[in-house]
Amino acid sequence: MIRFYFHPTPNPAKIALFLEETGLPYEMVPIDTSKGEQHTPQFRAINPNGKVPAIVDTDGPGGKEARVFDSTAILLYLAEKTGKLQGAPQDRPELLSWLLFLASGLGPFSGQAVHFQFAAPEGLDYAVNRYRREAERHYQVLNDHLEGRTYIVGETYTIADISAWGWLDRASRVLKGADDPLGSFPNLKRLFETVDARPAAARARAIGKDHEFKKVNDEETRRALFPSNYPLVA
């Protein structure tokens, strides 16, 4: 059984989609990051970095319980565990390359673009421009790669496509103010729509709907989400 620590944000959404695609048994454990539940000692024992998603596999390697954190690590772990959505063996180098491109580039720059456009104080125009333009650049790299391709790696749907879907779903926030945020990236838009049309995507979106996550953006939320902005005072 997989215990899946979840909040309805882009990185956990990737794991939700994988689990729904494969039918792997799991239990969703809500972690309300707006309330700071990611900083409790109990959760930090699972992910010392205090981020979602994380999983605990009660039937890990050798039959021992295993923790895995970071969405890319979880996708790789679960793909290897199930033997699914890994692509062809000869495509492994490409799969790793694009997964890490998404993990170290498209995802973080998208997240920072959202932060500086929606959460940061006014007047940080350099930062807003920097992260917005870098997010667009990563979109363009992937869009160019997808020319003439259906999927990111090889000929089949893989965890690379799942990883891209998680953040592309938030393109309207990453590219704030754009009427059609993926319109300038037609290959990327086609990939997103292809993945989003899968039945498992609708099931993944439904995860957590029966839990009341905090939606108010107050001081508690800001301290929980951005603790480094509030250094401890002796």
Automatic annotation (TrEMBL):
The gene is yfcG. It comes from Paraburkholderia largidicola. It comes from the Bacteria. Residues 1-86 form the GST N-terminal domain. This is Glutathione S-transferase. PANTHER family: DISULFIDE-BOND OXIDOREDUCTASE YFCG (PTHR44051:SF19), GLUTATHIONE S-TRANSFERASE-RELATED (PTHR44051). Gene3D superfamilies: 1.20.1050.10, Glutaredoxin. One of its GO terms (molecular function) is transferase activity. Residues 88-216 form the GST C-terminal domain. Keywords: Plasmid, Transferase. SUPFAM superfamilies: GST C-terminal domain-like, Thioredoxin-like. It holds the Pfam family GST_C.
